[in-house]
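Ligand: zinc ion. Inputs:
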Amino acid sequence: MPLRDSIVIDCPHCATRVSAPVKGYVKHTDTDNTIVLACCPSCEEALLGCTQLYRDDHDDWVYDRAERLWPEPSAIDLSPSIPERIRQDIKDAQKCIAHGIWSAAVVLCGRAVERLATEKAPGKTLATGLTELKNQGVIDDKLFQWADALRRERNLGAHATTEEVTKENATDVLAFTIAIFEYVYTLSEKYAEFKVRKAARGDA
Ligand SMILES: [Zn+2]
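Predicted complex:
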C-alpha cells in the first residue's frame, strides 16, 4: 500500500501538471505497472494513469509520476517506422500540449512536417515541398489540405502576429500531424507488406 495518497499527472482539461488525490488503484501482476484512478484537484474531473511504485529515501512506497491513459493518452505510441527525429518533435509537441503551450506545439508539428518535406522533396520550402509530395503521390489531396492548414497555423505560432494559436487549433494540428505520419510511414508500409503476403500466396 503506497504511503503517498496523491499522484502527479497531467490534466488535459487544466492543461497543467497536478498532484491529484488517488481514488483507487490496481497493480498489474505481470508487469510493475499500477493503474491509478485520480481526481484533478482543480477541475475535479477523473484521470486514469499508469505508473510504477518505488521506495523513496525513507523506504516508503510511493507513486512515480503517471502517464495519463484517459481521457486521451498523454503519450500516443508512435510507430517505429516514423524516423526518430520526427517522433521526437511529435513527442515534444505532445508535452507542450500537456502544459498549455499551444504556439510551441504547432511550431514543433510544423517542424516535423518540414522534416518530411525535406526528406521526400529535398531543396524545397515547406509550401512547395508539400505540393511536391502531393504530386509524387506521397500524400493524397486530403492530407495535402491538412498539411497546408498546419503550415499556415505553424506560421501563426512562429511569427509575431496578433492572432493567437488556440487550444483547439493546437490539438487539431497535433492530430493532423500524427495522421500524416501514420499515413506516410505506417499505412504505406503495412499495405506494401500486405501486397507481399498476397503475392507470396499467389493471390495478387
Ligand atoms: Zn483538471
